[in-house]
Every structure is written in structure tokens, then in C-alpha cells.
Amino acid sequence: MARTTxxxxxxxxxxxxxxxxxxxxxxxxxxxxxxxxxxxxxxxxRDGAIPPGERLPGERQLAEHFGVSRETVRQALEVLRxxxxxxxxxxxxxxxxxxxxxxxxxxxxxxxGARYAGRGAKARATxxxxxxxxxxxxxLALAPSRPTLVHRYWSxxxxxxxxxTAVTSFSTIALVExxxxxxxxxxxxxxxxxxxxxxxxxxxxxxxxxHHRDTITRIAGTPSVRVTRRVHDQYARPLEITxxxxxxxxxxxxxxxxxxxxx
Length: 263
Hints:
alpha+beta, eight-stranded antiparallel sheet, two-stranded antiparallel sheet, 28% strand, disordered N terminus, DNA-binding, transcription, transcription regulation
């Protein structure tokens, strides 16, 4: 996801800005920063990163995400509100783009094991373009040391007792056939925040049937388990592999299921 320079130029009030819609600027090179942020945010809404009706991240998170001030974020949101693309109530702002929300069963959250851990919980996700971890290249049919898109996820409960880490590597096939994933290559520097929560929906919208195989094993001498998820399509082509480490006490378990492509 592209980051905008954190140095905000002088900004005009959103109430006196031109009436041009954020997705159709008359002079992009002369646009105020808040309008450029509005355009970027609208692009992410349309990509499905935040489906219709879902809450947007808070102003502070959006400011960090785009590398601008909270005031710039407020002005950008105001532009989208005036165009009816974002609505705000007492619980915050949410997307209002037309189209039904995409339902994602809890078992299909990306990455596997990612979930809200309660008030005060912390989580972060980044992407990088690098050689995948040991074992991932072979699983994805990649040549040794060949770089690919690698997603890293970390979360902890408010009390710090529940810690989860996950590393996902994507195959060349996934990056070629799924435009939303391919866009991350040029900005995958290992520090950019990653919004891949809809990764499985993107894969399905590309016409792929997803076959998951999750293996859960205990890590000897520790209270943790390792969950290894492998996903391939209807042609048995590998799409991604994820390794999740989570504190738990479970026996080994393997289960499989298949999702049809989106219609």
C-alpha cells in the first residue's frame, strides 16, 4: 500500500474545496493532500479491503497508514462523506459503497489464526518482497532463493498472555492471477502496513476454487502449537502457505475443506 509523505502541505478547508469527486480529479498534480488521501482510501474501499458496511479504522490508524496528519485524514473523510461514500454515526465511520458485504467464516480469516483478541489487544501486519522461509519455496513450487510476497502477522492480547505470529508466502500463480495481491509487490518493504484481510475473497473472485489443508501439531517442550495451512486451486496449483504459532494445548489435527470460486 502506497504511503504518502508525512509532511503535509498547506491545506484548504474541505468546505471550500472544488466539487470534483475524489475519484475524478481535474488536476491530480495540483490536488490538496487530503483529496489525494481521499482518492487512495476510496481505491482501497473499491478493492474490497473494507467491504460495504464495515467500520473503517480510526483516524489515528488511518493517519499512520497513509503517513499523514490526523487533520488530513479528517478532511479526506469529509470529502468521502459529502459524496455519500462514507457514513459516520456514534460508533465511527463505515463504508457505504453499493454491494453486499462479503461474508467470511471465522475459519477463513487471513492469515489463519488472526482474530480480535479483546479490548486493548495489539496486532500488526506487514508485507515484504523476499525469499520465503525454509520449506515455503518447495511448497509453492518456487526456485530456491526466488523472492515472493511474504506477509507477517503478529498479535497479542491486552494482558500479553496470548501471542500469535504467522508468516504467509504466496506463489507466483497467486500473484499473476490476483491483481489485488500483485499491487503489493512494489511497496512490500517489510514496514508498510498490509490490509490483506480479504485475500481469500480476492482469490475466489479471480475464479479460483480454494482447497485448504490445515495441519495442527504441538511444539515439543513448549505450550504452543504450529498450524500449517496450504492452499491450492482446482488445478492443484499451490497458492499460499502459512505457518502460525499460537499458545495452546492441543493434539495434532488435520482437516480439509474446499471453497468454490465466487460467482
